[in-house]
Design brief:
globular, binds zinc ion
Amino acid sequence: MDINLLISGTLVLGTGGIFHLLENKIPLETVNRKKHFAFDVLVICITTVLVAFISIWLLEGYIREWLILNFELMNSILLWPLGIRIILALIIGDFGYYVVHRLMHIGPFWRTHVFHHSIQEIYWFSGLRTSALNSLVIRLPYLVGVCMFGISASVAAVIAISLGIVNFWAHSNINISFGILGYVFITPSFHRVHHSMAENAIDRNFGNILSCWDYLFGTAVNPTKSLNESDKGFEVPQEDVLRQLVGL
Ligand SMILES: [Zn+2]
Ligand SMILES: [Zn+2]
């Protein structure tokens, strides 16, 4: 097994434990992790396998080859230090994520995303509840960024796994503030508002890593205690679980 993947996998599991402890210590709201735990574990086992296959398919398949052929930047840029290229790829990918996420909240595309918004008890583990189609489409912008900057498949795989940690972070029930940096990077409370059913929070706070897209394009709402504690999600009818899991 690739050593980078092994390190990343261990890191993901390790951060899960840290998020769990921090949630116990400084929670944003009272969350009942056990309420939908069995459903979450079942769904997340399925989606994790799907996401793994999707990620491998994206990284090894013809889509990446096509993107490299059509989007890879000039050689002089590809010679820039790897760290700089990764940051630029993530910025471009994150902007693409913001656009795709906004589109998913419109009309027929909502069907790909509704499953994620069914989460009622939001904690670090629960955010993995997404449809297969959602998981595929939302990764494409980051793949475009990676291909633009000539980042190798093995480094891209580490980035893909690290985005899992971002997912844990965004959904964690941790009361932490970044101060002024909250206008640039998302915090758990910023994304928690995205899941709120409160009227002034609907279709707000779409960002994944960066919150600045929401502030730039007028879709941000500042998190408050009442928004963080407001109702979220809904029960998925049993007959609808499979459809929502696929995302069609
Ligand atoms: Zn959403
Ligand atoms: Zn979410």
